[in-house]
Design goal:
heterodimer, A: about 250 residues, mainly alpha, about 85% helix, about 0% strand, elongated, B: about 270 residues, alpha/beta, Rossmann fold, four-stranded antiparallel sheet, 10 strands, globular
Chain lengths: ~250, ~270
């Protein structure tokens, strides 16, 4: 495949994601999105993801303390445990972890559902009934995925910090009040929290746009849907890390 | 009424090469042709699901080509379409599938929507199927639900793509009788694509033969069968002329009639 055609495919991918996001934005601004579908998507894609986010965030918070425990003990820096855990969780681990979880669970599900609707002509069926798929399918899912990623990230941050505090108490004997003081002692602030939330918003857009676009462009029956899911999840994950790097770089004032 | 003039469409290769077709108000026209001649693509263009590269498609005098999404959606409200692979919404029950377009239109009260759904299901021989899951239906039942859904908004134009595909001869006869019943009951204009030429020709007012992306001839069955064009003669060589229609008038109760031993419905 020539460089030119590779660039063409990349442009088509980016264009597809852009069209999906613009359609969703238009439906939101016009308030024409289907509220029942949004509610259903929020419950199915969002609420049902909470147990998975809870489990992984709790253990990741604990693992961060387990990994840093030898250094903390060697330098007697137990009072910095809250700051260290908070810095990592609020700025990186919370959004990245949640983004990848949502991409794997919600994004793949979204691509598979839309892909199946596409290959079985149910989307054409909607259009034949004069129903705009952008209002009925695209916008509710995009909004639900973005909201799920942002709110899920905040939830993951809280749970991961709790996991870190619990593990710090058990493993290092750091009292939760000491952990809390390290967290709120002035070295961390709202900008760190906002940094993580902005990342989660961008990751949400990436996951929603990619998974919806790949689902809507699925072709070739069940194998085509499988390919679309695979490509969507891989591309979402890569895009999440690329966007993470760009946002981190930009936020350093470069 | 449907008027198609000089419509061109290609997907890399040309599929439609200047199609002309006219379906008069209240007529049932059969669109036939060899595989890959562009029948389904033409139906999708008329339904506004595909945009042609050139040409004109008018539905009841209103141009479909070149409209923006909203304008096209308004015109699509006048068209009902049933797809070859049925395309029912899996996540909805049978009743919800039928009620879906009506609920989206928000033009009728809920009681009237439910009444119309029940009436339309009864009309296709599926009375009492409102709560059934789509996945639990047989192929023939799904097709009838698709036909009922296409007609639920009482559109003046109905497009059917292979409505009898995969059905046994008895069910095929009933399906075509159902189309005739719809035409009379709803006074709609029907354009039907079917590969079952014998059955189709028993119920059509006119036939249009599409070959290699062009409508080679259109008219009453007799005149089409008398065509001297080689592709038409070759395509219709094995068709038997229906002296008397073997398609009985549609009777919804016949769907529930006991079958002879060993027989089954699809």
């Amino acid at each position: 495949m020539s460089v030119r055609s590779r660039i063409g495919i990349l442009m088509a991918l980016v264009g597809g994601v852009g069209v999906v996001l613009l359609q969703a934005l238009r439906a939101v601004l016009k308030r024409s999105l289907d509220w029942e579908q949004l509610e259903e998507s929020l419950v199915r894609l969002g609420l049902h993801s909470l147990p998975v986010i809870f489990g992984t965030a709790l253990f990741v918070g604990g693992i961060m303390v387990i990994q840093s425990a030898p250094l903390m003990t060697r330098y007697g820096a137990h009072s910095l445990l809250g700051w260290g855990a908070g810095f990592g969780i609020l700025r990186e681990v919370g959004p990245i972890l949640t983004g990848l979880m949502i991409s794997g669970r919600v994004g793949s599900n979204n691509t598979a559902e839309l892909g199946t609707l596409q290959v079985t002509e149910q989307i054409n069926g909607l259009r034949a009934l004069a129903i705009d798929p952008a209002d009925y399918l695209v916008a509710p899912r995009v909004v639900a995925i973005v909201l799920t990623t942002v709110l899920g990230t905040i939830f993951a941050m809280v749970v991961a910090l709790c996991g870190a505090a619990i593990t710090g108490q058990i493993l290092l004997g750091v009292h939760p009040v000491t952990f809390w003081n390290g967290l709120t002692g002035g070295m961390l602030g709202w900008p760190d929290f906002t940094h993580g939330v902005v990342k989660s918003f961008v990751f949400g857009l990436v996951i929603a746009g990619t998974s919806t676009s790949f689902g809507l462009h699925a072709r070739g029956g069940a194998p085509g849907v499988g390919r679309a899911v695979n490509e969507s999840v891989v591309l979402s994950a890569v895009a999440i890390f690329v966007m993470d790097a760009l946002i981190s770089f930009a936020s350093q004032g470069h | 009424m449907i008027e198609v003039e000089r419509v061109y469409k290609s997907f890399g290769e040309p599929v439609l090469r200047g199609v002309n077709l006219r379906v008069g108000r209240g007529r049932l026209v059969g669109l036939v042709g060899p595989p890959a001649s562009g029948k389904s693509v033409l139906l999708r263009i008329i339904a506004g699901l595909l945009e042609p590269e050139a040409g004109s498609v008018r539905v009841d005098g209103e141009e479909m080509v070149g409209l923006n999404y909203q304008q096209r959606g308004r015109l699509q409200g006048r068209i009902g379409m049933a797809f070859q692979n049925i395309a029912l919404f899996d996540h909805l029950s049978v009743g919800e599938n039928l009620a879906f377009p009506l609920r989206r239109q928000k033009a009728l009260p809920e009681a009237e929507i439910n009444g119309r759904v029940s009436a339309e299901l009864a009309a296709v021989g599926l009375a009492g199927f409102e709560e059934r899951a789509v996945q639990g239906l047989s192929g023939g039942q799904k097709r009838r639900v698709g036909i009922a859904r296409a007609a639920i908004t009482r559109p003046p134009v109905l497009l059917y793509d292979e409505p009898a595909a995969g059905l046994d001869p008895v069910s095929t006869s009933r399906m075509f009788a159902l189309l005739v019943d719809q035409k009379k009951r709803l006074k709609s204009t029907l354009l039907v694509v079917s590969s079952d030429l014998d059955r189709l020709f028993e119920v059509t007012d006119e036939v249009a033969v599409l070959h290699n992306g062009r409508v080679l001839c259109q008219g009453p069955l007799g005149s089409v069968l008398a065509s001297q064009l080689p592709p038409v003669r070759e395509f219709l060589a094995d068709v038997r002329v229906p002296a008397v229609s073997s398609v009985p008038p549609y009777d919804p109760d016949s769907e529930r009639a006991p079958l002879p031993p060993g027989a089954f419905l699809l």
